[in-house]
Structures are given as C-alpha cells and as structure tokens.
Specification:
Blueprint: H1 2-49, H2 51-63, H3 74-83, E1 89-95, E2 104-110, E3 134-138, E4 145-150, H4 155-165, H5 174-194, H6 210-224, H7 226-238, H8 242-253, H9 278-288, E5 294-297, E6 305-310, E7 321-325, E8 331-335, H10 342-354, H11 360-387, H12 402-405, H13 408-420, H14 422-443
Antiparallel strand pairs: 1-2, 2-3, 3-4, 5-6, 6-7, 7-8
C-alpha cells in the first residue's frame, strides 16, 4: 500500500515536471517567433499613444477655431469646401462642429469610389496622388476654408499604418498578427509557469541577484500586466486579416453581428419638394440621436436617404446609426447602444481603449503596458543568454515524454487557438517539424 502510494506520488511529480518542461519549451518558441515583431509593435504603439497631443500640435489651426458669434448654416461650410475641392474628388460625408471650438470636417473621396471608413482608400482612383481621400477643414463661424489634408497622411492614420503594417500596405499586416498570436501563447504559458506553489513565490524576493532576479521580475511584470495584455492582444486580433476573419465568422454564427440598416430603405419623394439641406438634416438627426459628434452622408438620387452615425469613439455608449427620410426627416431606421450585441459593445469599448482614445488615464495605462512588454521581451532574452552555454542552442530542456504528457484540455485549447488564429496554426506546424528534426538529430547515433 505504501509502495503504491509512493509510486503514485512519483508518477504525479514526473507528469508535472514533463508538462512544465513542455510549457517552458512552448514559451521559448513563442518568444523566439514573436519578439522581433512584438518589439516593433511596442515601439510603434507607444508612438501612436500620443496621437492626440501630436495632432494638436500639428493640426491645431485646422482642427480648432476661435468662437465668433453664431455659427453659420452648415450648408455654407459645405459650399465653401466644395468650392475649394481638389479635382477628381467628390463629396463623401460631413462631420459638423460639435463643440464651439471645432471646425467642420468635409470628407471627399475619389470620383467613382464608394463611401468608406476614414483613413482607407477604395478603388483604383485612390492610388492617384491628385485624387486621394481628402479632408477639408472649414471655420463654422465664417465658412473660411482653414486647410485640407490627405486622410492617409494625417499623423493618426500614418502612425496606425506604421503600427499595423510598417507602412507597407495590407499585405504586411501578417507580421503584427503573427506577433499577437504568439503573444497570446506567451501569456497563457507564462501564467501556467508562474502559477505560485509551495516551492515558488509569486512576488520578487528582496536581495535576489543575477538570473534569478531577472526571472522573478520577468514573471512579476508579465503577470501584473496579464489582464491588459489579454485585452490588447484580443482587440488587436479582432481587426487583423486572418484571425479577424475567423473571429467575425464566429461572431456572426453566434448571432453577435452588429445591427445593420436594411439596404432597401428609400425616401418617399414628394412632387415639387426638395430634399433636406445639410443644416436641416443635421437638425433632424440631433433631435433623434444622442448628444454626440456625428457624421452625415447625403442621399443619392431622388429616393436616397440621409445617414447619420456617431463619430466620437470616446463615447461608446452613445454609438448610433440613423437613417432619415430625405424629405420629411422622419426616422426610417435607428440602432442605438441598446441594439448593440454583447460582442459589439465589447469591441466598441475595447478598440478605443486599445488606441488610447479615452483620455490621459488610458494613455498612461498603455504607456505602462508598452514599457512592460519591452521589459518582458528584453529580460527574457537576457535570461536566455545567461543560461545558454557557448556553442549550444540554449533551448529549454525537454524531458522525455513531455509532448505526450499534455492533458486533453491542453490539446483541445491548442486546436481551438490554431483555428481561431490561422497564422498561429501555420507557424506552430513549422515549430513541430523543427522539434521532430531536433529529436531525430539527438537520437541519431554518432558516426566514427
């Protein structure tokens, strides 16, 4: 009986050691793959955090105005922007002045392209230097054009593309997605390896020096930032190329797609009547929508409709989409915060948080996160070089039977994550092939 109990305890200890060595190995591979891209993402992300301050310094004279009496009708600002419109562009949408110091922003797109999101080009005409999506800034008090700017060249859009693709176009977005995928694995395996036990302290110990000190602070910083790391990685993956498609597919299957206005909505054209002008449409939208900065899109054709949507992501609880009859101003469709799905609400909060758009506290948290990521990556490699012996690869030791020691739950989790993050699955396959080659090399008998 005693021998059986001892044998059971020994088997449990062996299994625990095997699994721990496996998680160490996976943690190392995750760091090896993610580090170069994660370093780039951290540095460019820290730069992007300070977008509000940088844009205020760069574009304050276009974004802000000095109040001077009553604002003129919105149509005056739109007419002024149209008169100064660059050749090859057509009016796309308008963001009226929300605060008394805001300028009116009039968005233009290349002729022949469909309306899209700010900061993105649509169609071949967008490749022309003389016909790129452009914003005209107009003083709402005087209807004076304050200036114009190509959307993609505004610092916020430029730094966001630097962060996501190093300014190399969508074809390079895979780099940050690959880093985010393996950062998720680093986070999961790091938590498993850190999880405190009787033999392990959760906090750094005073007086510890050398590699043990690096290890303790590496673990402590990583765990302290684990929640925000999960939020940042998850929200980043939602708008990535491959993982984003998987996430959106799962969202739609789960019935969590955002509400969409029916495509067949039409205005009831009244004989002899003209559609509402910009000011009337803005007034009608403000009567029916939350008090928030909004973007207006004019109707196309006699039966077209006015569309209004919230423009300020810093107030997600006021997010709305509104469709108005072009003649009466009556609502044909409205979806506010209460119509948003749980997934939609989570992303409406998570994405602005990821971008640091909730104010100084949000920027401070993200700066701390970015510096923490840099420390985690650098300290991990410091520990690696302190452990690695000259002439050796320095891979964490993998105990015999480690790969078969993983629990069914571990394998199921790995399969789900690989399906959700295709780049993770593809690169993980290459890691497994490398592991097989290393195993074969170690077992191969030495030749004389």
């Amino acid at each position: 009986m005693i021998r059986t109990r001892i044998s059971t305890v020994n088997n449990e200890k062996l299994l625990e050691a095997q699994r721990r060595s496996l998680f160490w190995r996976i943690h190392f591979w995750a760091a090896l793959i993610a580090s170069p891209f994660a370093l780039v993402a951290a540095f460019t992300g820290i730069l992007y955090i300070f977008t509000p301050q940088i844009e205020s310094a760069l574009y304050g004279k276009m974004d802000r105005v000095v109040p001077a009496g009553a604002m003129r009708p919105l149509d005056d600002a739109v007419a002024a922007a149209n008169a100064a419109m660059p050749e090859g562009l057509m009016l796309r949408s308008v963001v009226p002045a929300y605060n008394e110091r805001d300028s009116v922003k009039v968005y233009f797109a290349p002729v022949g392209t469909r309306p899209g999101h700010e900061g993105h080009d649509h169609g071949p005409a967008a490749d022309s230097i003389s016909a790129r999506p452009t914003v005209m800034y107009v003083n709402p008090y005087t209807a004076e054009v304050l200036g114009s700017q190509v959307e993609a060249e505004r610092f916020g859009n430029w730094s966001r593309k630097l962060h996501s693709s190093l300014l190399q176009g969508d074809g390079w977005r895979w780099m940050i997605e690959l880093a985010a995928s393996w950062l998720m694995i680093m986070l999961i395996t790091g938590i498993v390896l850190w999880w405190p036990s009787k033999k392990q302290n959760a906090l750094p110990q005073k007086g510890t020096q050398g590699r043990p000190a690096w290890r303790q602070w590496h673990a402590f910083i990583g765990i302290a930032l684990s929640l925000i790391s999960l939020i940042m990685v998850a929200t980043g993956l939602t708008w990535s190329k491959y993982a984003g498609e998987q996430i959106r597919g799962a969202r739609d299957l789960a019935g969590q797609a955002p509400p969409q206005a029916p495509r067949n909505l039409k205005s009831a054209a009244i004989e002899g009547a003209t559609p509402m002008n910009w000011q009337s449409a803005w007034d009608a939208a403000r009567r029916q929508a939350p008090d928030v900065s909004m973007q207006l899109t004019a109707p196309r054709g006699a039966h077209g409709v006015w569309r209004a949507a919230s423009f300020d992501r810093r107030q997600p609880e006021k997010k709305f989409d509104l469709v108005l009859d072009a003649y009466s101003g009556n609502s044909l469709y409205y979806a506010g915060w209460d119509r948003q799905t749980a997934f939609g609400k989570a992303t409406a909060i998570g994405i602005p948080f990821h971008r640091g758009e909730f104010g100084w506290w949000n920027q401070a948290v993200l700066l701390m996160f970015g510096l923490g990521i840099l420390f985690s990556l650098v300290s991990g490699w410091v520990m690696y070089f302190k452990r690695r012996q000259s002439g050796a690869l320095g891979l964490p030791r993998l105990l015999p039977g480690a790969w078969t020691s993983a629990s069914p739950a571990t394998w199921v989790t790995a399969i789900i994550l690989s399906m959700a993050m295709p780049l993770l699955g593809l690169s993980a396959g290459l890691v497994l092939i490398t592991e097989l080659l290393l195993h074969w090399r170690m077992r191969k008998p030495a030749t004389a």
